Amino acid sequence: VKERGKDNFQFYQRYIRTEHDDKLLMEKRLRLAAERNDFQLYYQPQIDLREKKVIGMEALLRWNDKELGTISPTKFIPLAEETGLIIAIGDWVLEEACAQAKAWFDQGHRLRIGINISPIQFQRPDFVNKVKHILEKTGLPASLLDLEITENVLLYNREECFKTLERLKQCGITISIDDFGTGYSSLSYLRRFPIDTLKIDQSFIREVLENSNDQAIVTSIIQLAHNMNLRVIAEGVETTAMVLFLNDRDCDEMQGYLYSKPLPAEVVTTFIQQTNPE
Length: 278
Ligand code: C2E
Ligand code: CA
Ligand code: CA
Ligand code: CA
Hints:
Blueprint: H1 2-36, E1 40-48, E2 53-65, E3 69-71, H2 73-83, H3 85-106, E4 112-116, H4 119-122, H5 127-138, E5 145-150, H6 158-171, E6 174-180, H7 189-192, E7 197-200, H8 202-205, H9 212-227, E8 231-234, H10 240-248, E9 253-254, E10 263-264, H11 265-275
Parallel strand pairs: 2-4, 4-5, 5-6, 6-7, 7-8, 8-9
Antiparallel strand pairs: 1-2, 1-9, 1-10, 2-3
One calcium ion is lined by residues 178-179, 199, 201, 235.
């Protein structure tokens, strides 16, 4: 028994060391990728439910590392946040996505671009100036830029947050609350902060047709948004039955695999030419 215990302990130690090594390797590779901007952006269409046409695109980051293969943003974004690399990576995302939206704009497609902003980026004192600078540099109209933040961002430094949002708003930029309903905030911020859109988290949409609690939540979020003059987007829409449900409740927009997975920019250009004939 004693021997076995010792073996187990050694095994455990080795296991921990390996996990730690994996993380160090990933950090090393991520640092390299951040230096070289070795990422891609994919774009997922956002569809106006009434008009049934694409009105926006959400930019989603992709990392395909030579050594580590394809790594999900749900894995490397937290690491980027922990290491501070999210600042450099986030700058690249902002500029790349705005430049892409400007290229579509120049081709005659007025598509809003949704960009995910980490709390760490948002809380930097130079954030607003950075965004303004990127708009100037790329020439994208500010009204086409939508920044997606999570409600947890609004938990800390409320005064600073409020000022940042006001300044962004004054430029004509819009703000969406991502993963709405999953954070720790109380609803009181909705009254106070200048936001434009609520994005209903996909965890509420996934079983909305089978689960009456999810139905109540989704219906209430749509009503709440409309009563406060906010727009509302449903994420993770995968079936036409979901579309009918959302249509019945007067949801404004949807996004999900039913319509399209996130796509590389070249494919999007072809895609919008087919679906949004001018
Ligand atoms: P998110 O912002 O909530 O993005 C939605 C995620 O759901 C995306 O995963 C998207 O590919 C996926 N999705 C879209 N439609 C469907 C659907 O119909 N069904 C299902 N099951 N999933 C769907 P992805 O691209 O893996 O991104 C995961 C998360 O990583 C994002 O969640 C966001 O929090 C973060 N992220 C991605 N790109 C960036 C970025 O550029 N900056 C920052 N800070 N975070 C990012
Ligand atoms: Ca998002
Ligand atoms: Ca989301
Ligand atoms: Ca999410």
